[in-house]
């Protein structure tokens, strides 16, 4: 749980190198369950590029962690939200989502995003 907590704290403070230090070099960011255009991004550097591009679309950006649920065996569900305002459009963004983090050998090996915390818990075989 501390690995994920450290990663999230670094991400919230926009500390790119520290954020990446918690990720396995071959990490996978799976967004196929969110309904967006992206399916999966492979590798620490590709994720860094994607995140810089994503955050760069906002004039204001804020990421909040609402809850961490330790599922055991290196799996953690994170309930999070992001708010902001589009850089070009000024359109507000306010969404909540869930992520299942998988930690192997002290590094984050996979992050699977879901439309909600409930969807993530259901995928993990739990319901709230």
Detailed description of the structure:
The structure is a single chain. The protein is an alpha+beta fold and 128 residues long. The protein has helices at 2-12, 16-21, 44-56, 117-123; strands at 23-33, 40-42, 58-72, 75-86, 92-104, 107-114. A six-stranded mixed sheet has the order 2-1-6-5-4-3, sandwiched between helices. The radius of gyration is 14 Å and the shape is globular. The model has no long low-confidence stretch (mean pLDDT 93).
Largest sheet: 6 strands, mixed
* Gyration radius over CA: 14 Å
What does the oligomeric state look like here? Answer: single chain
SSE topology string = HHEEHEEEEH
- Number of beta-strand segments: 6
Brief summary of the model shown:
The protein is of the alpha+beta class.
Summarize this structure as a short list of keywords or feature phrases:
128 residues, alpha+beta, six-stranded mixed beta sheet, 4 helices, globular
Give the arrangement of secondary structure elements.
Layout: H1 2-12, H2 16-21, E1 23-33, E2 40-42, H3 44-56, E3 58-72, E4 75-86, E5 92-104, E6 107-114, H4 117-123
Parallel strand pairs: 1-6
Antiparallel strand pairs: 1-2, 3-4, 4-5, 5-6
